[in-house]
Amino acid sequence: MSEQPFRSEQPFRRMVLIGIGLVGSSIALAARKQGLAAEVVAVARQQATLDEARALNLADEYLSDAAESVKGADLVILCTPVGAFEAVAKAIAPHLEPGAILTDVGSVKGHVHRVVGPLVPKGVHFIPGHPMAGTEHSGPSAGFAELFENRWCILTPTDDQDRDAVERLTWFWKSMGSKVDLMEHEHHDLVVAITSHVPHLVAYNIVGTADDLATVSKSEVIQFSAGGFRDFTRIAASDPVMWRDVFLTNREAVLEMLGRFLEDLSMLQRYVRNGDGPALEALFTRTRAIRRSIIDAGQETAAPDFGRPHGGEPDDQPKSE
Amino acid sequence: MSEQPFRSEQPFRRMVLIGIGLVGSSIALAARKQGLAAEVVAVARQQATLDEARALNLADEYLSDAAESVKGADLVILCTPVGAFEAVAKAIAPHLEPGAILTDVGSVKGHVHRVVGPLVPKGVHFIPGHPMAGTEHSGPSAGFAELFENRWCILTPTDDQDRDAVERLTWFWKSMGSKVDLMEHEHHDLVVAITSHVPHLVAYNIVGTADDLATVSKSEVIQFSAGGFRDFTRIAASDPVMWRDVFLTNREAVLEMLGRFLEDLSMLQRYVRNGDGPALEALFTRTRAIRRSIIDAGQETAAPDFGRPHGGEPDDQPKSE
């Protein structure tokens, strides 16, 4: 894929990461590796999290006071679960400096515009964002500098947003390896409802169902999970608070897409009940083609079984770091 | 896990694999590697499949006539999609030799007992089986010798089945690296309905739903699939005919487990609609623990994101062979 060379920019003076979990710590590592900020500040409410971040040498400064942290910052990124954004925004708003960029990494964007937008002082560039990257692990030690490489980051600036600020934030994400797309926040929330939120909801649900059965024991579910079930357990192992907040703040789009999913599942249930072989085969053939498209788009590995190790005991070491 | 050492056995004289796709070809490779059969025979209806198997040097003999192939065989394994079993069994039954073991690798077992069982001549040991192993790839070239290592193979002999024959087949699977469990076929079909069949149905369904939307384009679904959706596309890329047959032949258990899944999903839908944060967080916390148990049981990699490559373009080479 050929891309336009993008404008080179000066590094940020002071980048503040409010929240230093998987995504915050990965930004810290990637931004430092690429020299995108002279000073990196990690902010967390809990001392244990700050200690963990410090032990990993993720930042130049470690603070528990968000309001204090943003003084002098030209880039502030909200990296907590979305449910905490409003409170954080209230705390930092009076201290944000004119010309600073305020962005976030939350998985929903309409809510962020609604609750954070009105709190942002004039002269601060508010550009909500969403890097579509992650793993099922969480916390400061889960981060790695390559997390954003070849993944999309969606920015949802308002129409009247300063073009230079948007370009500067685009440069920041591209420098960490992301592809960047601009989108209306309403559309973003629909796109992620089907590509991310409903898949998570369904995965959480099936894992819960399997855990609850009386006729099949939990140990059987675990033992025989390689038949397909274990695939679902990965995203159903994602951070519970982060995902709680996603479903609390993207309700309408999730319910809309879940409704579509359920309509289709009713039809599929009927195919099974009626023993409609041709209809089943037609669907299963069509879905196979979509994976091929995702692989061709560079968004998935072509290796069978995600490249999981086969043979002997599965290795216990992360391979991606 | 400590296991009883199992009885050593003589290799089979003539092993016949009727169907030589992913599982058949993997058995051919593993059995030859471990010296489990003096002669390996690959059977397929289509000449192109036989040619592919021959080019891969999977067997000693390549035949299109199943009836002919089983003459002199002491191990016959049905490896076609389950829907073909009845016709194959009718063709081979008159030619099966007394003392031979007839088994299969189908994902459903009640149906196999019902349609194949009555056709098996006296003196032939009929022991249906199900190796819970696979990838989303299919065809003779998808096979590899390590496919069964550390995966469970379930055998569902009838109560009156010859114990020596069951032990001999157990030895065969263990020699290819499998763990072996015996189960009633009714229970097997429930276990796989929740650990394998409903997960596949749900994955096929969500991929179909995403493909059908008017509000989100197919290219957006592909582009932004890394948010969770792409995980589902793997099992939704499995062999369409094999899976059609699974749903046609394990209907009752699938509908039962799908009913449970839908009940739970209605509840979860209500949590989202009502904004019930504590209920969402409680479920998401419980499901996270289940993945840990699967990893601890050696049935899943602990590497984040299944060990998918991060950084740069995803590699295009299978890593498991």
Description:
With 321 residues, chain A is an alpha/beta fold. Chain A has helices spanning 22-34, 47-55, 66-69, 85-92, 110-116, 163-175, 185-212, 218-223, 229-235, 240-249, 251-274, 277-296, and strands spanning 12-18, 37-43, 61-63, 75-78, 101-104, 125-126, 129-131, 152-155, 179-182. The first copy, chain A, folds into two domains: 12-183, 3-Layer(aba) Sandwich (Rossmann fold), CATH 3.40.50.720; 188-301, 6-phosphogluconate dehydrogenase C-terminal like domain (6-phosphogluconate dehydrogenase C-terminal fold). The first copy, chain A, has twelve helices and nine strands. In chain A, strand 1, helix 1 (22-34) and strand 2 (37-43) form a beta-alpha-beta unit. Chain A starts with 11 loop residues before the first strand and ends in a 25-residue tail after the last helix. Residues 1-5 and 313-321 of chain A have low confidence and may be disordered. At the A-B interface, helix 7, helix 8, helix 9, helix 10 and helix 11 of A face helix 7, helix 8, helix 9, helix 10 and helix 11 of B.
Per the CATH scheme, the topology name of the largest domain in chain A is: Rossmann fold
Beta-strand percent range of chain A: 5-15%
| Termini gap of chain A | 25 Å
CATH level-four homologous superfamily name of the largest domain in chain A: NAD(P)-binding Rossmann-like Domain
Quick one: overall form of chain A?
Answer: globular
Could you name the CATH class of the largest domain in chain A? Alpha Beta
Strand order of the largest sheet of chain A: 3-2-1-4-5-6
How would you name the oligomeric state of the polypeptide chains in this document?
homodimer
Count the E strands of chain A.
Answer: 9
Mean pLDDT of chain A: 93
Query: What is the gyration radius of chain A calculated from CA atoms?
Result: 21 Å
Task: Please tally the helical runs of chain A, counting DSSP H or I stretches of 4 or more residues.
Answer: 12
Describe the largest sheet of chain A: 6 strands, parallel
Which structural class best describes the helix and strand composition of chain A?
alpha/beta
Which protein chains make the most extensive interface, counting residues with beta carbons within 8 Å of the other chain's beta carbons?
A-B, 127 and 126 residues
CATH A-level architecture of the largest domain in chain A:
3-Layer(aba) Sandwich
Detail the poorly predicted runs of chain A. Answer: 1-5, 313-321
